[in-house]
Each structure stands twice: as C-alpha cells, then as structure tokens.
Amino acid sequence: MTRVHPELSTVTLGSGATIGYDQLVLAAGSRPDWDFIPGSAEAVLSENASTNYLFDLAPKTWRLVDAATSGTAVFTMPDTTCPCAGTAQKILYMACDLWRSRGVLDDMRVVLTVPGDTIFGVPVVDDELQRAIDDYGIELRTRTRVRSVDSGTTAITIESDGATEEISYDFLHLTPPHIAPDWVVDCGLSAEGARGFVDVDPETLHHRQYENVWALGDIAATPGSSSGGALRK
Predict the structure, then answer these.
(1) Does the pTM of the predicted model rise above 0.85?
(2) DSSP alpha helices (H): ranges in the chain?
(3) Phi, psi (5° rounding) for residue 13?
C-alpha cells in the first residue's frame, strides 16, 4: 500500500488502484529513522560500525566483533521506539563472552549507553543484567542519549544529564530509533508526537477514532517494548 484514506475506508496500492475496505488491520512494522541521529546512516556503513537492525549488516557486526582484540567498543540503545530493544544488548554480551574467551576483554573498553535510569527498566531483568555487566567490566552509561556520530573521526557524541561527551570508538554497534513507514505517517492515523505509529487502544488494538481500523505489531502505538517478551506480559 502507498496510502490509507481512513475517512473514505479505502487504500491506495502501489499500482495506483484503490480498494475499499470494511475492516482494516495494519501490521506494517517500522523502519530505522536515520535522520534522528545525524551521521548514523553513514556510520553503520563505515568500516568500524554496524547494526543488527539491518538484516544485511548482521554478518558484518559479527565480523567486526570477531576481529576486535583491543580498543573501545560502544553499544547504544535509543531514547525512542525501536523493535525489541533487548537486541541492542544481546550482541554486547555475546561480544564480551567471545573477547573474554580469547583473553582480550581486559584490553577492551566496553561502553553501553541506555536512556533510562536502569539497564533495561524491568527490575528482575536489571538485576540479572547488572551481574553480567559487573562480570564483564562493562562501562554502563544510564540516562544517556546518542546525539550524533562522525564516521570520519570514528567518534560518537552522547548526552547525559545535559552534558555532552565525545567518545572515540574502534567498534560501534548502533541501535537506530524507529519510525512508522512514510505512508502510515501521512495517513492521519497517528496521535501527535507518536512518530507515525497508529493510535490504538492498547487493550484492544482498536483505533481510537476510526471504528473499522486496527493495528498490531511494531506499527501500533502501545506502551512498553515492541518485543515478544513484552507481548507475553
């Protein structure tokens, strides 16, 4: 689809055809918002950085982890919506385990930036992850947001409690904030400030304004993490 017209109960397809609907269920997912962090798109395509949020770059991530023997490795979590935020940390612990097994972890400075007051925001999970962070010697930066990335100088600018800091990196795993696809952003189904995600009742996934519109998955503006673990709860 290229457009939804909720007031007419029709959708426009890529072919240009228009189809009417009685009920519309949107499961359009989300996409990385590279404009949110200046330099992020260029960074993940550069020699020393990657992201597991792009399918084609996941093998590159592991190649960089596998090749690292010293230096500074930075892993980030965004301060806005992203699918399964835990993915940003899974690669961190896998990398540290590999580096320790090879005897190079002590030669690495490993930094994790998270936007919240705690590692993950769920007490029982925080307790377990804190043990891993202490065990691996990870430098945890809470209440920290990524403001820009400069792939030319291999430096990331972060902000914490109003103060900015630049960290030079030898390896960067960047988790990009996500936004709804453009055609959803433009169709008027989102609440103000919701980055295009469809405004639904989180208990029913029913749109708050249009009786015949529903949304599920990453495209639905529901509280909590967009992940299987959050859905289970």
Answers:
(1) yes
(2) 40-44, 58-67, 87-101, 123-136, 182-185, 228-232
(3) -95, 170
Structure-block tokens of residue 14: 């890529």
What is the mean predicted confidence (pLDDT) over 138-148? 96
What the block records as the tokens of 158 is: 């972060």
* Alpha-carbon gap, residue 117 to 122, rounded angstroms: 11
Residue 95's identity, in one-letter code, is: A
Query: What residue type is 10 in one-letter code?
Result: T
pLDDT recorded at residue 185: 86
As a residue count, the chain comes to 233
The C-alpha angle with vertex 200 and arms to 195 and 206, in degrees rounded to 5, equals 150
Angle between helices 58-67 and 87-101 (to 10 degrees): 30
Q: DSSP states of 174-222 as a string? A: ----EE--HHHHTTT-BPTTSTT-B-B-TTT-BBSS-TTEEE-GGGB--
Task: Determine what percent of the chain falls in helix, strand and coil, rounding each to the nearest 5.
Answer: 25, 30, 45
* Alpha-carbon distance values, 68 to 12, 47, 110, 138 (Å): 48, 13, 12, 16
Block residue for tokens 């919506």: 81
Give the pair of three-digit tokens for residue 185.
């952003």
Which of these, 120, 60, 54, lies nearest to 85 by C-alpha position?
120
Helix 87-101 to helix 123-136 angle, to the nearest 10 degrees?
30
User: What are residue 93's DSSP bridge partners?
Assistant: none
